[in-house]
Amino acid sequence: MKTSDFDYSLPDELIAQHPLAERVASRLLHVDGVDARFTDRLFNELPGFFRPGDLLVFNDTRVIKARLHGQKASGGKVEALVERVVGEHEALLHLRASRSPKPGSVLLFAGVIQALVLGREEDLFRVAFDPARTVLEWLEQHGEVPLPPYMQRPAEADDDDRYQTVYARDPGSVAAPTAGLHFDEMMLTRLREAGVATAFVTLHVGAGTFQPVKVEDTAEHRMHTERYVISEETVAAVATARAAGARVGAVGTTSLRALESAARDGVLRAGGGETDLFITPGYRFNVVDRLLTNFHLPRSTLLMLVSAFGGTELLLSAYAHAVAERYRFFSYGDAMLIERQSD
Predict the structure, then answer these.
(1) Tens digits of residue pLDDT in 294-305
(2) How many whole angstroms separate alpha carbon 335 and alpha carbon 179?
(3) pLDDT digits (tens, 9 = 90+) for 74-86
(4) Residue 211 and residue 190: Cα distance in Å, rounded?
(5) 11 has a pLDDT exceeding 90
(6) CATH number of domain containing 116
(7) Domain residue limits at 80
(8) Residue 303: which of 289, 284, 285, 318 has the closest Cα?
(9) C-alpha dihedral, 166 to 168 to 172 to 174, nearest 10°
(10) C-beta of residue 217 within 8 angstroms of C-beta of residue 21
(11) What pTM did the predictor assign?
(12) Cα(116)–Cα(232) distance, rounded to whole angstroms?
C-alpha cells in the first residue's frame, strides 16, 4: 500500500483549535462498515447505538504536563517535550535547541529544575532530573499541557481540564486519547443506565502519534512503541460480552491498539508491555467490533487503522463528506462511530 492512498484535503479552518463549551456537544458521524453507509448524528445520541450487555473499553491514561522551557549553560534556549518517564528521576525527551546538547551538559528548566543530559537514544535524549522531586512532580509544578502541533496556540488554563478525560487515572501520556474527551459524567451515567458495561485499559500515548509517515511504501514505515496494560478484569469483561453475543467497542484508537496488541494470536490475555502494532487494511481484528474515534490526520497511521476497520473506500468517502459538511477535525473536533466491516 502507498501512503498517498490515505491522503485527503482539509481546510485549515476545520481544525478545531478550542474545545466546545460542553464535552458532549460534538457531532457524530456514524459509519457502518457492514452496510457501507454513513449518517450524520450527534454525540449526545450515543447511548441509542448500544444494546444492554454491550461493552465499551476506555483508555484511563492521564496526560502529563510534558512540555518544558529552559536554557543550556551557554544561555541558549531549549524546549523539551517528555516522550516517556523511565524512572522516578529520569525521562526520555525530545529537545529543540539551536545546537543539540552533549552528554554531561546541564539544562535548566523553568528557572528551577536542573537536568543532566545522560546521552542519546536514537532521536531522544535521556535526561536525569534534580532528585529533590520525581519527574512527574516537577512536571506537574512547572510543565505545560503538550497541545498537538496543529493547535497553533500556547496551552491555556482551560486545557488543563479539557485536554484530559474525566476518567483519567494513570499518568504517563504526552497526548490525550481524544475520543474519550467527548464523555462527561452524565454521559457515562446514561450509558450505564442503558445497560452498557465498561472496562479500562491503559496505553500511554507518545508524541510519535503525531509523526507523519515519511515513506511512500507503508511496509517500510517504522511504528513508534507505546506502553500498555490490560487487566484481568478487562479480559473478563470482554469474555462476558462475547459469551452473551454482545459487541465490544473501543473508545479511541489507543484502546483498540491495546486490546489488539494483547490478542495477536486471537486470545486476549492480561498483562502488558510495549506495542508497535501497525494496523493497515487487511489486518484481522480479534477483539473490537466497533470503534469510537475522532478524525485523523491525512497520511497518518491512525487514518490507516480506521480504514482497516471500516473499509478504506467507505472511510475516505466519509472523510470527504465530513469536510463538505464542515465537521470539526482532530483532538478537539467531532467524533465518528465506526462499525467494523465484515471479515
Answers:
(1) 999 999 999 999
(2) 7
(3) 889 999 999 999 9
(4) 36
(5) yes
(6) 2.40.10.240
(7) 67-142
(8) 318
(9) -20
(10) no
(11) 0.94
(12) 39
